Amino acid sequence: MANFDLMRRLHTTDNPARIVLLVMDGLGGLPMQPGGKTELETARTPNLDALCVRGSCGLSYPVAPGVTPGSGPAHLALFGYDPVRFDIGRGVLEAVGIEFPMTPRDLAARGNFCSLDAAGNVTDRRAGRIDTDTCVRLCRELTARVRVPGVEVFVEPVKEHRFVVVLRGDGLEEGLTETDPLVTGKPPLAIVPESPAAVATATLMNHFVREAGQVLADHHPANGVLLRGFAKHPTLPTMSELYGLNCGAVAVYPMYRGLARLVGMSKVTFEGETPADEFRAVAANWDAHDFFFIHVKKTDSYGEDGNFDAKVGVIESVDQALPILLEKKPEVIVVTGDHSTPATMKTHSWHGVPTVIASPWARFDGTTTFGESACARGGLGHFPAVHLMPLALAHARRLNKYGA
Amino acid sequence: MANFDLMRRLHTTDNPARIVLLVMDGLGGLPMQPGGKTELETARTPNLDALCVRGSCGLSYPVAPGVTPGSGPAHLALFGYDPVRFDIGRGVLEAVGIEFPMTPRDLAARGNFCSLDAAGNVTDRRAGRIDTDTCVRLCRELTARVRVPGVEVFVEPVKEHRFVVVLRGDGLEEGLTETDPLVTGKPPLAIVPESPAAVATATLMNHFVREAGQVLADHHPANGVLLRGFAKHPTLPTMSELYGLNCGAVAVYPMYRGLARLVGMSKVTFEGETPADEFRAVAANWDAHDFFFIHVKKTDSYGEDGNFDAKVGVIESVDQALPILLEKKPEVIVVTGDHSTPATMKTHSWHGVPTVIASPWARFDGTTTFGESACARGGLGHFPAVHLMPLALAHARRLNKYGA
After folding, report:
1. Do B73 and A402 touch (CB under 8 A)?
2. Average pLDDT, chain B
């Protein structure tokens, strides 16, 4: 784990050196045939290779060897937060994914609209997958009409039958059981507190479910709600506090802007959605931040589709656009992924993630191409992803010496 | 961290195998030009290269990736002590640096003689940098005349205006604010306790400052004292207790003999100051110890001067003298640094430190030259420096099997 106390104590803001963290989601891969090349090794990447020549390379592990991470923990690790210690609940991730501005007083849950029969038994756990417009309208009605004593209530649409409910107030607690019976023909379960501390919160949430049912009574097939993943906003120190950085996040997908927001980054707004658009956004906001997190999504999307060639293409488009970033001459540029998504597996995986740190103070390690095999032998070795931020700060000379 | 409980439980003294730990201070480096060779890679080192051929190599990290250590924490890590857990305060390091024999009942502070005007305001924070002879005389006078109720007082000269003050007694506590106002024209600050536990100690230290002022009244420009870095002697288990070793320290500079003393090593006295002199001291005391720590300082000094060629020269002089050690046939010889000090940076850095463990039981890893790039691909991998002592003990076959 990045030692927060060390980082708080050692970081300096005397040095204005800029750091760029370029994350290609699901970057790591596998060959389609034994002995073949991975997606990254197949891609033509002259600019990324040049970074390796003047940088240090390695393989990073998001959570622990053998552990396949979701996007939430994988990004927390890249930002230097131990993803096991800071376990972000599903309700919060869902809220983060729609950029709902959560506060530390908030408790969030994932919601489904569902269909109930006259006896109150669930007949469809997804309310016939109502369209998103209906979802938006019903959420607006719930927010307007449901009252829970002593707390504010927000009901925010996600997509189709999915929504997020957030209660905001003092003393709300996690540790509530879920209401989804997981089968049809049974009524939704009551929310039960898992500890004495959560008794009051369970009462409030059960109150919400009851009131929501009354508001929705005439809206079959969406005449009930199922809630799960109750979670409080995690108390995370900000990257500004830990590292002395003024961080800007450049991401096309709301989930990643939301994750960046959790650790105190500001959102950089821009037009377009290609890597070149994102890099131009960094260049246009160069003076506003000294740390930029750039998130490229499509490497992961094509990996999950099993589309090896399209993933190669996204990597090549990042490489081709890279000069837009390099022209700004960041003192440190880190290129990595949050995890691996090999096209041959069509899913996230646990494999180490190729990583390069380029800076005038990087020790040349003989790596001349950016790829899994080359990085496995690189000068950074095989390291937990939480070490990346301390390494980036060091290469920017933004950490003071520890001890005399 | 070296697992103290494991080491205590597994070490055996049945095997008299000797271990030599040769530390070239600030050994790790960088090329002066991208793609060039480091200091160590530039040096002609046939004897060190031969150790690599029959040894295992790797890169060690003193504190954590990205963290640049001072000498104190870097050496503690080499000796197997977590340098974050055992955080040695500045006052103690200053006392250690003059080999003052601190005890666990001692509280130390760094002192400056300063000049005060008639109103008690500081006019010179360094008392015109009085010469060391004057410093010695004034410290003697303070030790003789200052009385603090219930504790012993030691005032020991360091150099010019710098001294160490040590209070010895029961119940002394850390957590005191400093007296240096950091500017002239203001009076020294009173010492304030940072916790209730330190109230009594603050009173005693303020008493010392007051009495010292009276003793020094007629000694302008050195008519006052400024104190900072109040710190207690850390409670460290000895290397003898942890590892079952009888340790001797060979070092030219008092700071490193002092650090060795903190972990229970004995000082090996000798004439001269070259690496050859140090190695002859080991040979002459071969039967007195089964572990030798040898400290070579000048690699770091020339690194801090930015003198690449002179650092190369020191490494070559170590290599040339190495046969003096090798003739004694130590079962294990470890060659490493406490941290990197690249000449191009003129300061300590966070970069991994080249390390070789040569022993009949080392696994050959294909390394044939001692250097950063070669070690980055070595069989020991990239490892925290606190792992080095367990590895050295294992290669000396001084650790029993864990479990059946």
Report:
1. yes
2. 95
